[in-house]
Amino acid sequence: MDEKELSKFRERLLKEKADLEGELEYIESTMDRSQSEWTGENQYDNHMGDLGSATFSRENDLSLSLNVRDLLSKVNDALKRIEDGTYGYCRVCGRPIEKERLEVLPYTDLCIEDKKAEERSW
């Protein structure tokens, strides 16, 4: 991969990182703000349906937060691989990752064949 292509992927990853950090900040600010609701201290006098809705909402926020954190970790790992010169190479077999795959998932660290093998093992 030439320096121009590498620079393009670095820019995309940095933008993705900024977007994910903003999303994470928003999710966590809404979770902190409504803590009294998910603890059951809300204006509904602890009605089961309302508590269930508050619990569902809290679990949904936690799930979103975990997903964003996971993607952010993958993006940060890809940026490190750019810096150490291993970006674009499969971490399992060492072959170059298909450019089409990197265009879709710029943070991927597996070629399509090793990704398929990983999914079969689940």
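^ that was protein a. below is b, sequence first then the tokens
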Amino acid sequence: MAVKQTKIILRLDPSYKKCPSCGEVNVLRRSRTKNIFESFLRFTGIYKMYRCRKCNWRGPLSTIVITMQSVKNAIGFAFFLLIIYFLIGIVIKEYK
């Protein structure tokens, strides 16, 4: 039996997205960090710095996409943890 694997968070390359300023597609390219704040954003792995080739816009874009399936998976996992928490509490009370 094959186990279905689902990704909770998807990684995305924002360079194929639209520019937030001018709206052109496929004009974004990676940009170097210029200060400590931008370096911290890059270090977290969530945001990376991009620059538009057309309008020279520069800023951080997220590399993570949260899908509806990932939200469902997270809610299911939280529900599962809640049930386990209560079951362990019942077992501990019985054997005190």
